[in-house]
Structure formats: C-alpha cells, structure tokens
Amino acid sequence: MSGFDDVDDDARLPARIDWGLWRRIAGHIWPHRSVLGGLVGCGVVLALLDISFPLLTRAVIDAVTQTGPADLAPLWWTWGALVVGFVGLIWGLIVLAGILAAGVAHDLRRSAFDRLQELPFAYYDRRPVGWLVSRVTSDCDRIASLVPWFSLDLVWGPSLAVAIAVAMFVLDARLAVVVLVIVPALTIVARWFQRKLLVTSRWLRRTNARMTAAFDEAVMGVRTTKALVREAGALSEFSGLVGEARRYALANAAWASALLPLVSTVGAIGLGLALWRGGVQVGEGMSLGTLVAFMQFALLFHQPIEDVARRLAELQGAQAAAERVQGLLDTTPAIADGPEVVAAIARQAVGGAPNRAPDGGRLRIDRIDFDDVWFAYEAERWVLRGVSLSAVRGQTIALVGETGGGKTTIVSLLARFYEQQRGVIALDGVDHRQRSLAWLQSNIGVVLQTPHLFSG
Asked: What is the pLDDT of residue 97?
C-alpha cells in the first residue's frame, strides 16, 4: 500500500470541540432553517410536556389521598390529551429530523463534488481515491445524521433542565437544593468522558480513511498484485489496517458504554437524596404527591444532561468528519483565474466587444510559445529545465523522448493542469495565465495516455 500526503491529518487535529468549525458547518444548515426552526420549536414543547407528567401525577396522588377519587375524571382527560400530544410530537420530530438530515447531506455532497471538479491534477496526485470518496459519502453522512438530533437535544435538554429546576423550586425550595447538588458531579463525569471519546473517535475515523484508501488502491491494482504474486502481502497489509480499526472501535465503544451507566448512577444518587429528605418533609407536612413528583423530577433531571453529554460526545466524534468535509470545501484551487481575469470576464459579460472570448481576448489560438519553462512535481526535482519552443497554427510537432522525460508534462502545462515554477507560456504573445482557464481548456484538446471510460 502506498503512502499519500494528508491522509493522516486527523492525528494532528486539536483534542477539543472546535466551535468555530461547527459555526461554519452551520452555514450549510442555514438554507434549511425553516425545518430547523420547526425542530427547535418541537423541542421546547416536548420539554414542557415532559414536566407536565410529574405535576399531573402529583395532582392525582394528592386528589386520592386528600379529597378522594371523585375529582379524578378531569385529570384522566388531561392525562389522555398529554399522551396524544406526546405521540404526535414525537412523530413530527422524526419527520422533521429526516427532512433536515436528507437536505444537509444533499447540500454537503453537492458542494464537495463541485469543489472536487475545480481542483487541479496536483491535488489528486497526493490523495488516494478512497480517501476522497470517504469525504463525499461517509463523512457527509456522519454530519447530516448528527445535525437534527444534536440541534433538538441542544434545545430540549437545557429547556427541560431549567423547567425541572423551576418546578422543583416552586414546589419546595429546600428539597430542590438537595436534589440539585448532583449537577456538578454530572458535569465533571460528562466532560471527562467527552475528551476520551473524541480521541478514540478521531483515530477511528483516521484509520477508516486509510483503510478505504488502501482498499481502493488494492482493487485498482489487482492485476499488478496477481502478476507479481503479492496476494499474501497485500492481505497482510490490509489486515493490519483492519485490526487497527477494530482496536479503536472497541476502545470508543467501551468509553461510550461506560458514560451512560455512570451518568445514570449519579442521577440515582439524586433520586435517593429526594427520597431521603422528602420522606422527612412528608412527616413535616409535605404532601405525598409532592414527594412522588420530586422523585420523578430527580429521576428525570439526569436525562437531559445525559442526552446533551451523549450528543456532545457524538459531536466530538463527528468533528473529524466535519474537519475533513469543511477542509475539502475550503481548499482553494491552486490553479484558477486571477482577479484581473475575473474582472475581464465580468466586463465582457455586461457589454464586451463582439467576436471575442469570454475574457475579452482572442477567440482562437494561432501561436504558442514556451519561454525558459521550468517545472517540478516535487520541490527542486526538475522534470523540465529551461524549455523553450514555439508552435503555430497548422503545424504538426512530435515530442520524442524516454518515459519521464516531460512530454506529457509540456501538454499538461499548456492546458494549465499544472502550473510552471519558472518561465512563461504565451498564447499569441499573452501569458496563458492571463486568459480564462475555462476558455483555455475548452480550446485545447488532449487525449490522455490512460483515458478513463465512464459507464454508460
């Protein structure tokens, strides 16, 4: 398996959530803000419904123990309405989340593919196909599947926690303080596990990218592998990557599995405190319904913290994917129209001279000149040294030389698939970098040495 630049980028990334990165990812969500707004609104309503059930339970118990079951009919109707509303809200959340995930995935993939079309040959020389495929497929999927549920829990969790805290303080401030002492412990546990999950998730994504790249290379080079009888060696190399991915996957799963039980245990401590202190206060005049409501609130209180902690862990796990995708989208094509060319194209579009190219220059090419052109694919390893030549319309010229002598490179430089380090390539006396890239490449026909046949 060959090595490629940038495949191991994840190993050098910061070990904490990059909120600046996620704000940029949010820019891809903004076109779907109406769906996101509906999802956020449903989250707030869901939090209010969640605190309604303990309060309704309190009313039922107090009605039975204090006034008798005759007053329960309105409460049962209220309970039924809450259940129907809860089921309808969950259905709506699932639909909105699906719409948002599909829309974000579509936009990210389209933008990533569009950027790949703009990048020069040099970008692909240093990156395996499988490494790029994983960005447009699995990385975009990872981000899109996280966005709706993270957005929901980011609103629902704090809303529910605040609503529970307010309800408890309204019912009994002293008991509320006792129950809420578990919050610092919950926060510390969640934060510590988030860091562990981020590290293992990032290494897992890195290994998966290398594995995808290696698999793609192995399939494309299967004829060479068989011709050299390298099947055993190729299997051994690939097995090493698969084993590495398994180790990181197991470590990540172990940390994720330990997080939720620990958070639940801390939440159970809050429940025990509510039962202990509340039991004392029942003897001092607190109603039994209030005690049961407090126990339910204590049991419910850790759920939003647990969900937000889990979503933050997923966010950290997906950060590697976000960095990959956003890094691709942010990649500036090394070969592109300069500001002067862009301005010339704009002037020609709004009222330029007729029978001119889109950049205002000549429509056709009559003469090509290479003047002292130097080029290297890698620094200082020159393929061309001081090449000068001229060609005029109607000439047929053969470039003859050994493999690696620079014949294809000359044509690639002319078409600006690559950019020379020194010298000038002129079209009718004008530096070809001063002409529109799209016009240039559409006026030069190139039959590549290894053409690709597209399906269909």
From this structure: 92
Contact 129, 220 (CB under 8 A): yes
Q: How confident is the model at residue 244 (pLDDT cuts 50, 70, 90)?
A: confident
The gap from C-alpha 186 to its chain's centroid, in whole angstroms, comes to 28
Q: Identify the helix (H) or strand (E) that includes residue 367.
A: strand 367-376
Could you please report the per-residue DSSP string of 255-301? HHHHHHHHHHHHHHHHHHHHHHHHHHHHTTT--HHHHHHHHHHHHHH
Do residues 203 and 323 make contact, with C-beta atoms less than 8 angstroms apart? no
Here the tokens at position 20 are 């600046």
Going from the C-alpha of 210 to that of each of 121, 143, 223, 241, the distances in angstroms are 21, 19, 21, 8
CA distances to 153, 336, 355, 427, 440 from 358, rounded to whole Å, are: 51, 15, 9, 16, 10
Which residue matches tokens 């950290």?
316
DSSP, res 139: I
Query: Rounded to two decimals, what is the model's pTM?
Result: 0.69
Distance CA 321, CA 138 (A): 8
Sole residue written with tokens 């020379």: 420
Q: Mean of the per-residue pLDDT values for the chain?
A: 81
Distance of alpha carbon 317 from alpha carbon 330, whole angstroms: 21
pLDDT digits (tens, 9 = 90+) for 376-431: 988 778 999 999 999 999 899 898 888 878 888 999 899 899 999 999 999 999 99
